[in-house]
Amino acid sequence: MTINSLPQQAINVHPSIGTALVDAHSKETKLFRPSTMRSVTLSNRIIVSPMCMYSSENGYFNDFHVAHYASFAIKGAGMVFIEASAVEPSGRITLEDAGIWCDTHIPVLRQITTLIKSQGSVPALQIGHAGRKASVYSPFHELSGLLLKKEFGGWPDQVIGPSAIALSEDYTVPKEMTEQDMSRVTEKFIKASIRADKAGVEVLEIHSAHGYLIHSFLSGNSNQRTDQYGGSLENRMRFPLKIIQCVRDTWPQHKPLWVRISASDHKNDHGDIGGEDKDGWDINQSVIYARELNKIGVDVIDVSSGGNLAIADYSAGPLYQVPLCHYIKKEANVTTSAVGVITEPKDAEEILQKGKADYVLLAREFLRDSGWVFRAAKELHVQVQWPKQYASADRERYS
């Protein structure tokens, strides 16, 4: 029996898995405090970050993805982000990326979102376009990160960007986009958001980070145009804001819209908040961008960093991106989510307690431990709802 054929009463879980059961500790613990964005309520503030699995063929999700995302929902994550899905075939990073460029991608995605909802979690999806970082080998190949040539299934002649500047010698030189190209890509984002809604996605995130298409327009390190889309910060933000505004206008108003940003290119700032890269991309420009995103109805700024330069000046240690998130939250007065080597429950709780972010996103730690929510509850002394099928594993009940 598939999840779609289950009777409605069989897929309603009350309370949701990962919900804090009312006691003194759960009231004091922000990590397990529910949160509402527009019409969507999360049972806790622990979110599975979008992670590319490089396991699709022609963009299609498959049985692996169903099992993969179900594992997080069954074990209590408040929201589960489904990996970056390309809005057009040439917008994939690798040949094995997920996609949402045609209606036939909807059915399996709908199966995944239905399953996530059945466990009381919230299904979210990140959509994006790889831009000048497209057509490379996936991490599963010996040639990982190197250009995937046309004879091996790549599309180097279709790679696009703001300027004809390659990320490095390992990548192809992108075609500088025309205004016609920009209109076409904008329409692809709009149609992708419509498909996401039809597939049952409740929260949509636009990928505007890590050197992919939208981020590459924002940064003067990759955007050296001399028209209305290059030069000043206002010009560099023009195309990104247009895409996001069009998606916000199309995406149902009762559903939240997130945007992931790279707070800095880390060109010369050593990861320091005070570092400047006025002609490239830095934390101060990110604050201005975050304010503009807030004005057009973006609900959460998902703060990451880097990815736009082949050589960047920073070290990636535990919690290394949290100060960037905190700075943007404070200076732009926006709702934010923190990412970046968050592994310990006490650290995740402290991020929220000290007002450094409103949500925490974990990536590889969830791959190591899909039951991280239950671990966090135990360490923070909060009793939470377990799936009834796994109740015998909640030994705290019997101690």
Automatic annotation (TrEMBL):
<keyword id="KW-0288">FMN</keyword>
<keyword id="KW-0560">Oxidoreductase</keyword>
<dbReference type="InterPro" id="IPR001155">
    <property type="entry name" value="OxRdtase_FMN_N"/>
</dbReference>
<dbReference type="InterPro" id="IPR044152">
    <property type="entry name" value="YqjM-like"/>
</dbReference>
<dbReference type="Pfam" id="PF00724">
    <property type="entry name" value="Oxidored_FMN"/>
</dbReference>
<keyword id="KW-0521">NADP</keyword>
<protein>
    <recommendedName>
        <fullName>NADH:flavin oxidoreductase/NADH oxidase N-terminal domain-containing protein</fullName>
    </recommendedName>
</protein>
<dbReference type="InterPro" id="IPR013785">
    <property type="entry name" value="Aldolase_TIM"/>
</dbReference>
<feature type="domain" description="NADH:flavin oxidoreductase/NADH oxidase N-terminal">
    <location>
        <begin position="30"/>
        <end position="381"/>
    </location>
</feature>
<keyword id="KW-0285">Flavoprotein</keyword>
